[in-house]
Amino acid sequence: MKLLLVEDNRDLSSWLTKLLQQSGYVVEQAFTGEEAAQFLLTQSYDAILLDLMLPGINGQSLLRSLRNANNNVPVLIISAQDKMQDIIENLNLGADDYLAKPFDIQELEARLRSLLRRSSGKANPVVCCGELQFDTNSRQFSCAGKTLALTPREHAVLELLIRVPGKTVSKKELADSLSTLDELVTANALEIYIVRLRKKLEQSGAQIITLRGLGYMLTYVAD
Predict the structure, then answer these.
(1) Which of 106, 119, 146, 204 could form a disulfide with 131 if both were Cys (CB 3.0 to 4.6 A apart)?
(2) What PROSITE patterns does the annotation carry (predicted)?
C-alpha cells in the first residue's frame, strides 16, 4: 500500500514514515500543500494522511481540490484542530476519517487499516487465496497457519495482488506501488520479486500467473 503523508513538521513526518514503513507501507512525504498537489498530478496513492495546518495551501483547501476533481482517494486527517465543529466541517468536505493530535500510533494504524478495508469494499479483515491468508489487522501473511517470511517489497507486491484475487494488476501499477519519487522500481526488479514470491507460495495453492502484455494475477489453483 502506497501512502502520501502531508505533514509540515519534519520530525513528526520522519517518525511516522519510519513506523509506517516498518508496517510494510510505502510512504511518500510532502511538507507543504503545494508539494502534495504536485505529487498528486503524477502519482497514485492508496490513502492520504493529511495535516490541516500547512504552509501555503492548507489541508482543507487541498482536500476540497481533491474532491472537486472527483479524486476519491481515502483521506485520513491528522490535526491538532480537535473542536467538533472542525471535525464535522472536514468530514463534510470529503475526509474519510479524522484523528486529533496527539495520537497513539496504534490507533492511527487501526484507523488506516479500517479506511483501506472500506475503500476496497471488504468488511472481513482476513483475505484468503487457497491456503494463503492475509490479515489486514496485523498485516501479516500466513500459509497453513504459519507466518510467511517476506521482505518489505515482496509484502507490498503480494498485498496488492491478494486485495484483488483473480484480477489482473499491471506491471506499471505494481512498480508504481513500490516506487517513490526518490526511488524507482524497475521492471527487472519487479520480476525478481515475483520469482521469489512464487517460490514462497509453492505449498499454498495460490499462484501468481503472468498475463503477457497485461500484468500479473493471483489465483487459486487446486491440486
Answers:
(1) 204
(2) OMPR_PHOB, RESPONSE_REGULATORY
